[in-house]
Amino acid sequence: MKIETKVEKTYGYVDYGGSVDSDCREKCTDALVFLVVPLHGKWKVPIGYFFINKVTADQKKFLLTQAIELCFEAGLVVKAVTFDGCPANIAMAKKLGCDLNPNNLKTVFKVQNNEIAIFLDPAHMIKLVRNSFEHYREFKDAEGNNIKWNHIEMLHQLQEDEKFHAANKLRSEHLFFKKNIMKVKLATQLFSRSVSIALQFCKNTLKIAQFQEIDGTANMLLLLNDLFDILDSKVHGYGLKRALNAENSQVVLSKLEMCKSVLMNLTTNLKNKQVRLIDTPRFTGFLGLCICIESAKFLFNDLIKNQRVPYISFHRIS
């Protein structure tokens, strides 16, 4: 690998360090990095990196297993692995022993008889859900309530016309996000309590006719807001943003169960038929959040309930 500082270019060839067979003359496109992060602490340590190009699920499984075993040799306890939702990562999780069938989720695998949970990066998942919402335009929840992208567009247009924002951060960039599709805040500020309340305000207080059917949309925005708060919880947070512990576990776990139930039953219209979003081509964000929920519950039972740690800050895992 060489770096040209004058033109800010990096170039080189695929290199697995001799641990995996590969064509060493193939140009690399990415670096696969393994980073160790403590549940309690502020340090991060990269323990390995590989120059890759279209790495397979089998190769990723091999490298991840090696990384975990090296951590064990160093005396570390590995309880969770986080990665994004690319197809190779999902295939790797299945090869490790996870069952990602939405109706029978098993989000834990074993290495040397140690149980390890998988997390699909919540920040990536919330962006994928936002992308799906904008693409399909309309969902339905289990009660048949409409969840429409147009409701958010109407709120934005109303605020622009009135030159007044109802205590939310909704702007044009949240609706026309594709030029900044990687910015997490454009998704989290859209799926926010403040936007949900603004929609309800337009219906219940201002009594604007076109906002009379926004309940489904407002409820989903609030649900995703709460779910992301939990999956990004921190030690010094408040409410659902507070790290999971014995005191708040009943509220948090109940909220997680409710979120999973809603996500599993959201549908959209495909070819004149209502199809669950987790069964559509754009399933990853919804399934990924359900995986995070199951893994969060596992860590609570394994670590907090067994009094191995006093709390879990999911921000450290994401």
Automatic annotation (TrEMBL):
**UniProt xrefs under Pfam families:** TNP-like_GBD, TNP-like_RNaseH_N
Which residues belong to any copy of the Transposable element P transposase-like RNase H domain? Answer: 6-97
InterPro entries per the record? TNP-like_GBD, TNP-like_RNaseH_N
The Transposable element P transposase-like GTP-binding insertion domain sits at 123-234
Q: What protein name does the entry list?
A: THAP domain-containing protein 9
Organism annotation: Arctia plantaginis (Wood tiger moth)
